[in-house]
Each structure stands twice: as C-alpha cells, then as structure tokens.
Amino acid sequence: TGTGEVTLAQIGIARIEETDNPINGMCYIYKLSDGSAVIIDGGFNNKDCRNNILNTLDKLDIAKNADGKYLITAWIFSHGHKDHRAAFTGFGKNMGDQVELTYAMYSFPPSPGTLTASTFDSVNFENKMYEYYPGVQHIVPHAGLAYHFDNLTVKILYAPEMMYAPDKTIAYYNDTSLIMLAECGSTGALFMGDAGEAAAALTWDNYEKAAFEAEMLQVTHHGFNTGDGSHNWKNIKLIYTNTKASYGLIPMGSRLEGDARNGRHTVIVGHGGANYQMS
C-alpha cells in the first residue's frame, strides 16, 4: 500500500464531427504513488481522443516498465456507451504496444430486448481487449466491494447487477453505469458515469449518508436532465447533497471549426438553463 501523492487529471473529449454534442464523453486519469496510472473511461474512438490519453500519460510522467511501456494498473469503465468506452479498443489497436495494462474493470450486462441503439457487442469488445492488451485480467466490479490499486481505493457503491438480472431487459442503459467512490487518504471523488434516477435510488437506499462523502463529484450524464424522467432530481440530488463536495467535475470537448457551439460555453452557460441539473 503506497502512501505518496496521487494526481487526478480530467481529460477533454475530442469530437468526431460537427453534429457531436460538445459535452458528451468522459475521461479521467489517476497517477498513483507508485507512478502507474488508473484510467476511467476514455471517450470516443478517434485519433484525437487516443492522442489525448497518450499525451496525458506522458505529461503526468507515468512510470514505464523495462520495455519502455507506460504502466496502467487498471482501466475502469463506467458503462458501455461509446462516448465512455470506445477509445479503449481504438487506443489498443493503434497504441497498445506502448502500454502495459494489468486490469480492465467493467460490468457490461447482457442486453436482451430491443434497446439496440444504446448497446454494443460486448463479446467483440472483450475479444479485442485480449488481442490488443496481452496479459490483461478482467475484473467484474461488484457492489459493496472495495478494490485497491496501490494507494487508490475504489469502492463500488452501485453495479448493474443490483438492477438487472441476466434475463431482464435493460429499460434504460445509462442505469448500467457504475457509481464508485475513488479515495486516496481523506480525499475522494464520487464517479457516477451516466447513472440515472433509478440507479441513484437503489444506491441511496443501500448506504448510510456518510458513504457518499467526497471532495469531488463527477456530475452524472454530463449534467443533463431528461424529459422522460430517467434523470429526475430526487435521489440524484440526495446523493449530490450528501457528498458535501467542494468541486464538480464535468469533462467537455472543445469547439469544432464551423460549429457555433463552444464546449465550455455550452457547459457553463447552458447548464444554467432548463433540462440541465445545474439549473
């Protein structure tokens, strides 16, 4: 168990084309006390997102093995939407020979039913993972367990197994997002991925208020509310309030040439309007 400094970097998300929303996507990189990295999500599968990850490993001076490969202790995925997990396979295909990955942590439940637009071929994802990252070990995160990576502890407060049995149709894919508390010493960050109100309700009902306390809060679902009630404000607000967080984390993209929307303007100004949690 390490005792040194930990750095958390929030990475901007590169947009693929003009029609992409400038606030979709998510990527965080921890530098642990032993110099290795833990990555959360990663963004889209495009060259700029891949370069953002590799350049950040360089800027953070992530440790390397004897072959000169960056040491990534764990790559953790909140859920299977492409703006969160797609960079992983693209990075592996193009840059996998520059890293050594020990663990990949994710729970992508089977997707019976007709919700094809929000799901993906998780078997193909796993095959590519083993092809691009030789020796990697898959961790299936379970609710109520804590996972230790050097001096970073990742507590899984919610996993999709709490809501979805293998034979149950997934009603709202964002509710397969992990809710997890990453802690180093007394400093923690609560990551919610894109988790919605139903996942928040289950999580809230299963823990004491103190379990949510964290200095930093990753705002779920890019700050969006939704008209269908899947991101209503009751239980999400309870979790937010009881984090007692000082900082809100919202990754964002930048403006594309010819697109009037600017990523930062959309986030900071737009989130004060209707249908955004910040309002």
Q: What does the model show?
A:
α2 links the parallel β4 (70-76) and β5 (99-105). The protein has helices spanning 47-59, 82-95, 122-132, 197-206, 234-243, 263-268; strands at 7-10, 27-31, 37-41, 70-76, 99-105, 137-139, 146-149, 152-158, 179-184, 187-191, 216-218, 247-249. The strands form 2 sheets. Strands 1-2-3-4-5-6 form a 6-stranded mixed β-sheet, with helices on one face. The chain is α/β, with parallel strands linked by helices and 279 residues long.
Gap between N and C termini, in Å? 41 Å
Task: Give the helix tally.
Answer: 6
Structural class: alpha/beta
Indicate the proportion of strand residues.
Answer: 15-25%
Q: Regions with pLDDT < 50 over 5+ consecutive residues?
A: 112-118
Q: What string gives the helices and strands in order? A: EEEHEHEHEEEEEHEHEH
Mean pLDDT: 88
Q: Determine the fraction of residues in helical runs and give it as a percent range.
A: 10-25%
Based on CA inertia axes, which overall geometry fits?
globular
Strand arrangement, largest sheet?
1-2-3-4-5-6
Determine Rg (CA atoms, Å): 18 Å
Instruction: Give a count of the beta strands, DSSP E runs of length 2 or more.
Output: 12
Main beta-sheet strand count, sense and barrel state:
6 strands, mixed
